[in-house]
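Continuing from the previous page...

OK, I double-checked the sequence for MFS transporter against my notes and this is the correct one:
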Amino acid sequence: MAETRSRISHDAGFWVVAVCFTLVMAYSTVPTPLYPLYQQQDGFPVSVVTVVFAAYAVGVVFSLFFVGHLSDGVGRRRMLVIAVLVSALSAVLFLVWSSVPGLILARLVNGVSIGALTATATAHLGELRSRARPNENAVVAASVSGAANLGGLALGPLIGGLFAEFLPAPLVLPHVVFLVLLLAAALVLTAVPETVDVPAERPAYRPQRLAAPPSSRSAFVAAGFAAFAGFSLFGLFTSLAPTFLVGTFDQPDHLAAGATAFSVFAAAAAGQVVFARVRLRVQLTVAVTCCAVGLVGVALGAVLPQLAVFLVGGVVAGVGVGLLFRASIATASGLAAPGRRGETLALVFLVAYCGLALPVLAVGLFLLFIPQTTVLLVFSALVLIATVSAGLVMRARASTP
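Thanks. Re-ran it with the corrected sequence; updated structure tokens here:
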């Protein structure tokens, strides 16, 4: 039996983990609308913004490779508490060191917390729900997990934009507020039930295995490719949305920058919830259609230029990417061998966050000598091809008995 000593039930623990998951993911995107303020403070170019953002993604990938799978052996609860405390440490770094080196380090540390959190929280939510309600369809836990993940990412830019537009000290106050909330979350998590067997003697440490589950490698590769392609779109809106709003649409408003990123992530989270009980093949049909239509809208909005078309395109594409990502997680979880769910999910998130980092770095590099609109058009075309291709492959597999 897994260790279950706690002060709350599995049902209550499920919701505690969901809220803490949302909180940490939200803090990871709070800086999105604040980047222009940091630029004004230190006078660095937009290419530095992509480096700061990439430091976050590098931290996520590093953490997923080295610690993201450890909850299978050391316990879900312990890893969650550690992840939340590391996120709190990044808040401290933002407060005490706001120059470019400090921003890079703070984002790197914040990425480490996300890498330790995502696969662990996803696996923990599924296990807590199955014990609290063993007869319930697993789609409920998957939907809550996806909503916490993407919903948190959606809330962060909106919260950051509100702080930047309406409250004093926008480069200080958001980090203070989240530091307090994160410390409280770490304390509350200590009462959540454990759901894995923690051996008396821990096995020898090893990094994440970079191998797909042997039962169906092709299905896992398709799921990973879909996650990579989808997170490429998220990366664009999380890191460079304020830059495009100013340079292409002449919209310097900080709240507008936060609301733009929020709308894409919120659409992704809402799509997961709305289509949760729809058959996977239908979900993937909707995903492919939304990705194609939405990315064409993003490109048209940039060319015309029409901000409303750009935003609607981002929202429609967000729905498609959200469904693709949920299908990727469901596929990987279903392929995972017993006792290795955390490890398998960690690998999917590792691939996804590579998609978050690498294309954005490329975009930042090309922006140094190519006009913004051209870069956005090429990026949109590549993401369209990648997401539609991955969605069609997964849909074909879902159609096969």
